[in-house]
Amino acid sequence: MISLDTIQQAHDRIRPHIHRTAVLTNRTINEKANASLYFKCENFQKIGAFKARGGLNAVLQVAANREGTAITTHSSGNHAQAVAFAARQVGMPAYIVMPRTAPEVKKAAVRGYGAEVIECEPTLEAREAGVRAVIERTGAVLVHPFDDDRVIAGQATSAKELIEDFGQESGFDLILAPVGGGGLLSGTALITHYLSPATRVIAGEPAGAADAILSFRSGRVEKAPFIDTIADGLMTSLSDRTLGIIRTHVTDILTVSDEEIIAAMRLIWERMKIIIEPSCAVPLAVVLKHPDQFANQKIGIILTGGNVDLGKLPF
Whole-model pTM? Predict the structure, then answer.
């Protein structure tokens, strides 16, 4: 069980290695949404994404407990960078299995942190087979992108800071996060339950990778009927672990099209003058798609990351 104390310990553990990221507001976007939006800017985090939190919390414990002499994972990008960065912090080699279709900017960043990149076909089966081969060859310890309590507890610290900094005097009505494998959403839902139980948590998901909404409804891990989305960080299915937390503590999952994601991404670039990646824009796209559902509410939004390939902008 991931308790409030577990998350507090995770925050204490990773605090020397992370930024307490800014929370920004924007009058124009508030007027467009007819709501008060508070953007937790994890695009300003170390490695450019919230995943640094979970990766650090797991790797720091692997090192402290002497569980192994190397680290491995599979990831399309941001978790790969997080694990590579965390492994460098503790002086351990890292072997990262990445699909060959992952953005080159993310592969380059992983190598820049000193990790070895092993490319594979863009399927979960190929990623998992690649990790098994690494473990057999090196004895590395797997830090799973989301199916790991230590990773989930680390990801929870982003919403923890958001609530502590802007949700104490007048609590949030809602906190929104995107969902892929569900690590961030699980952590966000848990810490919101502990610190602000009256606040609802809603997830945004691309219509082109809509497995979480099916799993949320059926109660078992489902696969998306098709995968075709610009939000490359949200293509992964949930695990039993994350689905259990999400069904207990998340109010709803809403989907948005790629066109809606791109429009929200562009709005943030233009109005807030900050760089975000497509996956990061999904929660705002949800708010803009359902104006009546979110009107006149105080809403926290986790802006998950800014690792976008500038040579392949969708606008």
Answer: 0.96
